[in-house]
Specification:
Shape: globular
GO molecular function: protein serine/threonine phosphatase activity
Low-confidence stretches: 249-258
Pfam family, one: PP2C_2
Distance between the termini: 28 Å
Helix content: 25-40%
Mean pLDDT: 92
Structural class: alpha+beta
Protein name: Serine/threonine protein phosphatase
InterPro entries: PP2C, PPM-type-like_dom_sf, PPM-type_phosphatase-like_dom
Strand content: 25-35%
Organism: Paenibacillus polymyxa
């Protein structure tokens, strides 16, 4: 049984939390998790991320059980594209929402395997056997510069324009969704997060905190959030964790003699 938790914090600088997060174990047996990081001013950013979560949650709540990976991919992609339409049309109808948008990273799990859909610079990582692997690719100007060999990895991490997005949800009438598949093994943890975490907490820190399986999942999520706050907390911070527990328990842990 996959364990889940999500936490969010406004941070030390912002007055409004424009992040939205949502996790549910759906009746059909799937697990749906969403993290969205809104932009466009406090009212607009908050609205964009909320609309993203609400649209995906509503669209995917009625999925049939036992769908193939291909069908789940199509369902998640369609839901994200629908959210793009909802946000774009809402902004077009009301001036106070002009140019609002949001990132989104969402996972639809069927037991230990699943599909990740993603737009923007909110990220998905998998932490496995002490190693951290980023599953998503940032849709940012700085990442494009890095891929083209114009800046180094170190320059990418510290670039003053690292938050400039090249793709977002709701800012244009049409958008491309990146889709990745994931298969969790026992002991693995999937992390979804906004850039308020990934900009301030290193992969080494993520590995150390999330890999400490002896600690409750809630405690590990809170610890990641606390590390981002200690590093400055200059943005909203959102963390969502999905763990496939390793149910191998030693004799000593059971209180038995070897």
């Amino acid at each position: 049984m996959i364990k889940t938790v999500h936490v969010s914090h406004v941070g030390r600088v912002r007055s409004v939390n424009e992040d939205s997060a949502w996790i549910r174990h759906l009746e059909q047996g799937y697990i749906l998790g969403i993290v969205a990081d809104g932009m466009g001013g406090h009212l607009a950013g908050d609205t964009a991320s909320r609309l993203a979560v609400e649209t995906l949650a509503a669209d995917l709540a009625t999925l049939e059980s036992g769908l193939s990976a291909h069908s789940l991919t199509a369902a998640l992609s369609d839901a994200i594209l629908h959210a793009n339409e909802v946000i774009f049309q809402t902004a077009a109808r009301d001036e106070k929402y002009h140019n609002m948008g949001t990132t989104v990273v969402a996972v639809l799990l069927n037991d230990a395997s699943g599909i990740i859909g993603h737009i923007g610079d909110s990220r998905a990582y998998v932490i496995s056997k002490g190693a951290v692997r980023q599953l998503t690719e940032d849709h940012t100007l700085v990442n494009e510069l890095f891929k083209n060999g114009q800046i180094s990895k170190e320059e990418r991490e510290n670039h003053p324009r690292r938050n400039v997005l090249t793709r977002a949800l709701g800012t244009d009438s049409e958008v491309k969704v990146d889709i990745d598949s994931i298969a969790l093994e026992k002991g693995d943890v999937l992390l979804l997060c906004s850039d308020g975490l990934s900009n301030l907490v290193t992969e080494e820190q993520i590995s150390k905190v999330v890999g400490a399986a002896e600690n409750p999942l809630e405690e590990r999520a809170d610890r990641l959030l606390h590390l981002a706050l200690l590093a400055g907390g200059d943005d909203n911070i959102t963390v969502a964790l999905f763990e496939l527990p390793d149910d191998t328990v030693s004799l000593s842990e059971k209180g038995c003699d070897a």
